[in-house]
Amino acid sequence: MIIIQLNKRQLKIIDIVKANEPITSENIAASLNVTRATLRSDLAILTMTGILDARPKVGYFYSGINEINLVGNKVKDKKVEDIMSMPILVKKDTSTYDVIVTMFLSDVGSIVIIDDEENLCGVVSRKDLLKATVGGADINKIPIGMIMTRTPNVVTLNRDDSVLLAAKKIIEHEIDSVPVIEYDGKDKTRTKVVGRLSKTNITKLFLEIMDN
């Protein structure tokens, strides 16, 4: 069985939960003198691997580092390319209106924006589109490139990254999905989008593992 490598803060969290279960995330954060946001990724990893159990309106319980963590091991072995889905891509000169239509027809929370050479140049989310419409702008005339989040500020993943890393990025950056990229040769500025890793992909993986 693969041994899960926990960091010092995660080990402290386990000790706090053992001694005080059930305990809320607010109380765990207070015990460590940090914010809840700081603990978000640690608590997510500990619950995903089965070490902690989280119950709404109750708090966290200690489940134990034992065979239950085989679920965590199965997740840890998975790579992004194993569960990623096809990305929804639009060109940066596409109108904001057309992107809104594409987003809702595709039923996704974010869309990847590419340039004329099909390299990643940005990402647009539902929140970005909402801001554009509420602001009274003519969404038929404004290209999506004007309101997108531009590279290098876009969070990305590679094919061989772990699913746990993907989950951590989604939680830390509070985003719906992450584009999966590969570099065009040695030029790090030329990035092709080859996939999309979302919360839904990760949830489906957990359901598949638990069903089996």
UniProtKB/TrEMBL annotation:
Q: Where are the transmembrane segments?
A: none
Q: Which UniProt keywords apply?
A: CBS domain
Kindly indicate whether the keyword Cytoplasm belongs to this entry. no
**Which part of the chain is the CBS domain?**
83-139, 148-212
Q: Which InterPro entries match?
A: CBS_dom, CBS_dom_sf, Diverse_CBS-Domain, HTH_11, UCP026546_HTH-CBS, WH-like_DNA-bd_sf, WH_DNA-bd_sf
Q: What is this protein called?
A: CBS domain-containing protein
Judging by the UniProt lineage, the source's domain of life is: Bacteria
Does Cell membrane show up as a keyword for this record? no
Q: State the organism named in the record.
A: Asaccharospora irregularis DSM 2635
